[in-house]
Amino acid sequence: MRRRVGLGAIQQQKLAAEKYKDKGTVLQESQLEQMTKQMEVFRVKLEEFAMKHKEDIRKNSQFRKQFQEMCAAIGVDPLATGKGFWSVLGMGDFYYELGVQVVEVCLAANHNTGGFMELDDLRVRLIAARGLSSVHQEITKEDILMAAKKLSIFGNGFVVHKLGKGKYIVQSIPGELSMEETNILNAASNTEQGCVTPSQLIEDLGWTDYRAQQALDKLLGEGLCWIDKQTGDEPAYWFPSLFPDRRGRSVISSK
Amino acid sequence: MAEYPWPWQYNFPPFFTLQPHEETRQQQLEVWADLFLKYLKDKNRFSLSIGDQNSPLFHNESLKRRLSPEFVLTILGELERTGHANPLDKRRQEWQVYWFTLEDYGNMVYDWVQVTGQTNTICTLYEIASNEENSHLGFYGVDEAVLLSALRLLEEKGRCELIEMDGSHGVKFF
């Protein structure tokens, strides 16, 4: 084939490129239009769904869990978006309300727990505090975690610590827990009674004698644990919030 | 005899060690003071001896934890501060402990005297504390020694006069 040369050919190429570009823009526009349409449809459907199932959303813990998973998958924080169409679901309100209740329950029990509460314990107390109708009863640990985690934006007065093995502890007094302290809490939560000794820390965490004692003294100094000097051996350090007997009694007496 | 309904703290081993942290210790003392009063009320007792180391109140046998005499003294000191206990000897080993404060007892007895119109008559302490008709009143069954202390307080205010008769006491209210 003969190569096309000359001014005419260049102009033709330019023209073709322009045409392609135009076509591309048109395509893009139509795609955007379609996407917008789809989003619009989605929004309308979601709103319809929300209107229809508003009560279910408040009641159904399973639904909330799946909704949370969906939001996580598409990168939307249902609580951060107070405006916009997510709010029609009333998801935010549910968690805000729960968050306030979490604070109330934790603060009311602070004198007893020393500022720590296990998530299971918190759930039992929340349910007791929320009234007897089934709407209020169906709250899962995920719901509480979601609500409690939001509270951390108010500073370090309210923090959720993960202790491993699916256990969480909610701290409701100001102050940051150091890594050491978190590790100790973790070790204590794995014992039946919720107590640790220095030698246990030395053995389990590979700490030095000095480090273990320092960390325990710090916890004691902050009023987060109790010391037992009558073990016959080295002292033991106890966390009231992890002591099983306390929970048993407190649940009964609160009814 | 039914087991006393101990609070959960009674089974919490560090509860028997005086806590070094100021706020924690204050809480601990409050719970102990409350437990002392409730326990003695339940047993209808009005005295405590620090030397009585085998009392279940000082000694949780299954837990192998006990209150040291110093700790007991601290708790009783707390009760003394709130008007619920009084040492009987100089060494502060024997104590009178009472559910209501002496002032409360005095007022309750005086109210009862007024209501039943017994002013200007003489009653014995036994009549006041052990009268079956008074079983609904707070001072029913009160230890006579405690009652005597309460009446002495009332006497100081000029509301009654204690009279000694053959070693026992009578009282005249005004």
Automatic annotation (TrEMBL), chain A:
One of its GO terms (cellular component) is ESCRT II complex. Belongs to the SNF8 family. The gene is Dere\GG11084. This is Vacuolar-sorting protein SNF8. PANTHER family: EAP30 SUBUNIT OF ELL COMPLEX (PTHR12806), VACUOLAR-SORTING PROTEIN SNF8 (PTHR12806:SF0). Pfam families: EAP30. Component of the endosomal sorting complex required for transport II (ESCRT-II), which is required for multivesicular body (MVB) formation and sorting of endosomal cargo proteins into MVBs. It comes from the Eukaryota. Keywords: Protein transport, Transport. GO terms for biological process: bicoid mRNA localization; multivesicular body assembly; protein transport to vacuole involved in ubiquitin-dependent protein catabolic process via the multivesicular body sorting pathway; regulation of apoptotic process. SUPFAM superfamilies: Winged helix' DNA-binding domain (SSF46785). Component of the endosomal sorting complex required for transport II (ESCRT-II).
From TrEMBL, chain B:
It comes from the Eukaryota. One of its GO terms (molecular function) is protein homodimerization activity. This is Vacuolar protein-sorting-associated protein 25. InterPro entries: ESCRT-II_cplx_Vps25-sub, ESCRT-II_cplx_Vps25-sub_N, WH-like_DNA-bd_sf, WH_DNA-bd_sf. One of its GO terms (biological process) is epithelial structure maintenance. The gene is Dere\GG23371. Signal peptide: none annotated. GO terms for cellular component: ESCRT II complex. Keywords: Cytoplasm, Protein transport, Transport. It comes from Drosophila erecta. It is found in: Cytoplasm. Belongs to the VPS25 family.
